[in-house]
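Student: Send me a single protein entry containing the residue sequence and its fold in token form, directly below this note:

Tutor:
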Amino acid sequence: MTIDAAPPLHRPGLTPPSLPPTSLPQHVAVVMDGNGRWANARGLPRTEGHRVGEANLLDVVAGAIEIGVSELSAYAFSTENWRRSPGEVRFIMSFARKVLRTQRDVLHSWNVKMRWVGRTPRLWKSVLYELREAERLTAHNTGLILNLCINYGGRAEIADATRAIAEDVAAGRLKASSISEKTIQRYLYSPTMRDVDLFIRTGDEQRTSNFLMWSSSYAELYFSPLPWPDFNRSELWRACEVYAGRERRYGGAVDKVLHEEPGQAGDPLDDETPEDHEQ
């Protein structure tokens, strides 16, 4: 697939699984890993993996729309990725700029609202311009929210939020005693971002790599052995099915022994006496 040939929103013969709305992840975050290894395994330069991987994102976006996901966050370029070779960084920045320019009309036609999440420093001005244009074009769309995380780092986001909060406290605009989790949320790059329900990483790596650390606190993790260029909408649907089968407790617990009352055989309270509690 080339970046000039967008996948169709609906593919003949491909139908997403029917999941109850209450079992469907509303916000899916994806770490698109394995592009370089996918290319090298085929005797191709790493840049070719990025080319195929970026184009593949549109197929996953289409799959998210079809199954009913409300928000999708894609880790396209991290604050740590600047450590890569200058040639690879130049390719990724140039290619991201071209993808944004050529595919935003497709995403707009799909009613997708595009948002940029990340830091301004070091980001190419031409890429930032295309991101802002994509946001402007799709600002009033009401479908899937696509967060493009470019020049993003989870620790950097929390550090930037903390710095802004400290500045407002020093200026008297905010009381330190009133700072809560909701306060911190307001200072993040995207204050209206939902909490991540399903966190997907491809490429057979099992770590979160500094992505959406605050928003992913209670996310269900799904690690795919497939490199990102091989991860398509069907794989996204499979991850959603796995998510639907999990029990999310948010720190709580449910006692599944429903028919035993305290004091019955096997209950640890059986051997206790009032005197035990007085000791």
User: Anything to note?
Assistant: Confidence is low (pLDDT under 50) at residues 268-279. The helical segments are 35-40, 46-67, 86-109, 125-138, 154-170, 181-186, 233-244, 274-278. The radius of gyration is 23 Å. Strands lie at 27-31, 71-78, 113-117, 145-152, 198-201, 220-223.
